[in-house]
Every structure is written in structure tokens, then in C-alpha cells.
């Protein structure tokens, strides 16, 4: 089980370690800087993406010796004249998600404005997935929250076959590559966008996929927290069935899949969608253990009185055992469970707004 | 990112900044975006006046001009 947790916030990166059964903050880096993505590998490296208001996106890596060094960031190619009417900027907005690529030194970075980048040298250099960026359909991708920049919020690698990749896009559905990013196609069927005109409701490219999570031991099982509800796929994202049993509400951003059990996943529901607060001011975690047929609403140790914490897309994580979970909120709340979500404790800290939590593999 | 003052040659703001970035390549991405334009929340002044061309950096500069790069504050 994981004993180390990284928490990226609006004002820095916090590292917690479990000592004698108690989670404590042992290190703070980039204090004052917004952290947009974090990744830790089994060998002891940590990557932190910063979203600096003035100076753009940056990437740092802590190597096994404990030394932090600034790395290269993904860079978009020069914008050609014929792309003058492209609705999306050809300049890195921020790194939204970082994932290990399953092969030595390989990393993937999902970004705003929608570029997917690959590194084969632990983040020292990056190359744009040109096939995805240059697809004509990419111009139909809608911006996050009505802005000009779409964002790749999820990158799912098949642990058995690292060339098999799924990405979730805000807002453009689910895209698949089976050749390590050389070609892509839009795959999601079965989702619906209830706010769209009837003719467009089921259009795959219009689906607002907030976050995807894949069962590591059963990579064909993928869960989705969508703007309009929760969905589950048993064929790696191609077809989706709505999970209507979710309680106490179906809106939310975050989802975590159990790494071993294909029937278990966790969500943090909120009132949709103009308000975006927990139902009745009570923070709860919804857990299914039967593939979405039913849910437990877990609240032991969570605030149940005038709590307005929202949890963003990357603010919920499970460790490799599925026993330890953590989530962080827009109000700076951080809760950790060691029993699969049955009960939660809050470390002694009052943090800045949390963007991302990530366990380091044990 | 430390950014000490430097004396460089160049006929335009873009040339002068490029000369600085040659010796400090990591600095470029802090000042310019991927397309080479000045970042939205960075300001560039020449002798106390904001530059006109923030996209291609073509404002002319002379041998004794001072280019000043600063962060334009925002957020909270």
C-alpha cells in the first residue's frame, strides 16, 4: 500500500508521508505557485507541472537523489498560415495531466489547448502527437468551461500494451490510439449531452467527459464522470452504459477506479451544474462495488454541516491496493481513507485549493 | 528563474531578446509563448515605454536603449 501522497494546490506542492499510522506533511515545494499536474513513479521520481500566471507552464522533476530540476515543457510547433482560422491557440496553456507511458522513460502529457505530448526521456524533451493535433475534427473540440482552450484531462495506458491509449477530452469525448499515438479515432458511443439540441445529444464529439478512470487489472473496464452523469464501459471506452444508480447526485468531476476489482469505483457527487456544491452541504463519496448497480454513500469522517467543497477532475486518487484513497477540495480540504472509503481522516493542515492528489507507488 | 541584466546587440527588441536567450535558453519560455509572442501577462518596455509589437517584437532599438521585462500582475 502507498505510504506517500503528493498534493498539488493553487499555492504549491505538498508531500505527505504515513508515519506510525499518521499522515503528515513532510515537504513543501513551489510554495505560492499553482501546481496543475503531478506524477510519481515507482523508482522515486516525482514530476510537478506548474501553471505560472505570468510565465506560462513549467515542469520540474525530482530524481531519485531528491534534487529538483526544471525540465523542458511541451511546445507547440510554429502555427502555419493556413491554420489562421484555427479556433485554438498553438501555445501551451497548461499541463493538465501527466502519466507514465509503461515503457522506460516514457511519459504522456495531456494539455490545454488540447495537445497530447510524449516524452521518451523522463520529461527532458517532448514531442507533440501530430496525428491528433492535425486531425480536422480537432477544430470541433470545445473549450473548457466555455473558454477557447479544450483540454486533455485523462490519458489511459493499457498496462499490458502501452501502445493502446485512450484520452478523455474536455470537451470532445473519448479518443483511441492503438499505435502509440500515430493514429487516432473518436470511439465513444452511448453518452448523451442533455443540454444540446435533440439532433446533437448523442454526437460523440460533443460529450463533456470530465474524467476517465481505468481498472489497471482489467483495462477494458473504464469509468467516466461525465457532465450529465456517470458512465461505464466494458470495451475500453467504445460503448458506454449510463450508471443511473449513482447517489446522491449524478454530477461531479472526479472518478477513481479500483486498480484490481473491475466492479469498484469511487465518485464525489455534487449538485449539477450551475451551483457546483455538495448536496445539502455534506461532503460524501459514492462507492459502487457491483459495477454500478448500487452505491454506498460514504460520509464517516467527512464534513456534514455547511461544507461546500468541490473536488476537481484530478482531486481523487486510489493507491495500487485500492484500500488507500485520498481527495482534496477547492476549499483546501484533504481527506485520506485506509479502508476503501469506509472512513476518512483529515491531516493536520489547512491547504490552498487542491487541483490534484497522487499517491506514489509503494 | 534568475534573470540578471545583460548587455547585448540587436536592431530590434526581438533581436536583443534572442541574444539574451542564446546565453540563457531556459529564459525564453518564461518571456515568450510557443509562437514567439510576448506572454499575455508579461510586459516589455523600451526606455520606459511599452513596446508596440508584442507579437513579432519588431520595435527598433539603438545601442544605448534599455529593454525592461516585467511581470504584469494579476490574480490572487
What are its keywords?
heterodimer, A: 362 residues, mainly beta, Methylamine Dehydrogenase, Chain H, four-stranded antiparallel beta sheet, 1 helix, 38% strand, globular, B: 76 residues, alpha+beta, Ubiquitin-like (UB roll)
Descriptive notes:
The complex is a heterodimer of chains A (362) and B (76). Helix content of chain A is 1%, strand content 38%. Chain A is mostly beta strands. Chain A has a 4-stranded antiparallel β-sheet with strand order 3-2-1-27, with no helix packed on it. The longest helix of chain A has 4 residues, at 130-133. Chain A starts with a strand and ends with a strand. Chain B has 76 residues and is α+β, with helices and mostly antiparallel strands. Chain B has one domain: Roll (Ubiquitin-like (UB roll)). Helix content of chain B is 20%, strand content 16%. Chain B has 2 helices and 3 strands; from the N terminus they run ααβββ. Chain B has helices at residues 13-23, 28-31; strands at 42-46, 49-50, 67-71. In chain B, a hairpin with a 2-residue loop joins strand 1 (42-46) and strand 2. Chain B starts with 12 loop residues before the first helix and ends in a 5-residue tail after the last strand. In chain B, 20% of the residues are buried. The model of chain B has no long low-confidence stretch (mean pLDDT 91).
Amino acid at each position: 500500500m502507498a505510504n506517500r501522497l503528493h498534493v498539488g494546490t493553487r499555492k504549491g506542492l505538498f508531500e505527505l508521508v504515513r508515519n506510525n499510522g499518521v499522515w503528515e506533511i513532510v515537504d513543501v515545494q513551489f510554495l505560492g505557485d499553482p501546481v496543475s499536474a503531478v506524477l510519481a513513479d515507482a523508482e522515486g521520481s516525482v514530476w510537478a507541472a506548474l501553471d505560472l500566471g505570468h510565465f506560462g507552464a513549467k515542469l520540474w522533476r525530482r530524481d531519485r537523489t531528491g534534487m529538483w530540476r526544471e525540465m523542458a515543457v511541451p511546445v507547440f510547433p510554429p502555427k502555419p498560415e493556413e491554420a489562421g482560422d484555427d479556433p485554438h491557440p498553438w501555445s501551451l496553456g497548461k499541463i493538465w495531466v501527466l502519466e507514465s507511458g509503461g515503457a522506460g522513460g516514457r511519459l504522456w502529457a495531456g494539455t490545454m489547448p488540447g495537445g497530447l505530448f510524449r516524452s521518451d526521456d523522463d520529461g527532458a524533451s517532448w514531442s507533440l502527437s501530430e496525428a491528433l493535433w492535425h486531425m480536422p475534427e480537432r477544430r470541433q473540440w470545445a473549450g473548457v468551461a466555455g473558454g477557447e482552450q479544450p483540454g486533455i484531462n485523462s490519458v489511459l495506458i493499457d498496462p499490458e500494451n502501452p501502445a493502446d491509449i485512450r484520452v478523455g477530452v474536455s470537451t470532445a469525448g473519448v479518443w483511441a490510439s492503438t499505435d502509440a499515438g500515430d493514429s487516432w479515432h473518436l470511439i465513444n458511443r452511448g453518452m448523451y449531452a442533455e443540454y444540446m439540441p435533440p439532433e446533437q445529444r448523442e454526437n460523440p464529439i460533443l460529450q463533456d467527459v470530465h474524467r476517465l478512470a481505468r481498472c489497471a487489472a482489467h483495462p477494458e473496464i473504464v469509468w467516466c464522470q461525465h457532465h450529465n452523469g456517470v458512465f461505464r464501459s466494458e470495451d475500453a471506452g467504445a460503448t458506454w452504459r449510463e450508471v443511473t444508480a449513482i447517489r446522491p447526485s449524478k454530477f461531479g468531476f472526479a472518478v477513481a477506479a479500483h486498480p484490481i476489482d473491475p466492479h469498484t469505483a469511487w465518485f464525489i457527487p455534487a449538485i449539477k451544474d450551475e451551483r457546483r456544491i455538495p448536496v445539502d452541504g455534506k461532503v460524501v463519496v459514492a462507492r459502487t462495488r457491483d459495477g454500478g448497480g448500487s452505491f454506498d454513500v460514504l460520509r464517516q469522517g467527512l464534513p456534514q454541516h455547511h461544507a461546500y467543497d468541490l473536488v476537481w477532475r484530478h482531486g481523487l486518487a486510489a493507491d495500487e491496493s485500492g484500500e488507500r484513497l485520498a481527495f482534496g477540495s477547492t476549499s483546501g480540504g484533504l481527506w485520506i481513507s485506509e479502508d476503501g472509503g469506509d472512513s476518512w481522516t483529515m491531516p493536520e493542515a489547512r491547504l490552498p485549493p487542491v487541483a490534484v492528489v497522487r499517491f506514489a507507488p509503494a | 528563474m534568475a534573470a540578471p541584466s545583460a548587455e547585448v546587440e540587436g536592431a530590434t527588441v526581438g533581436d536583443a531578446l534572442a541574444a539574451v536567450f542564446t546565453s540563457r535558453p531556459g529564459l525564453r519560455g518564461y518571456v515568450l509563448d510557443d509562437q514567439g509572442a510576448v506572454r499575455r501577462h508579461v510586459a516589455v518596455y523600451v526606455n520606459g515605454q511599452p513596446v508596440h509589437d508584442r507579437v513579432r517584437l519588431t520595435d527598433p532599438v539603438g545601442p544605448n536603449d534599455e529593454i525592461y521585462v516585467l511581470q504584469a500582475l494579476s490574480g490572487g
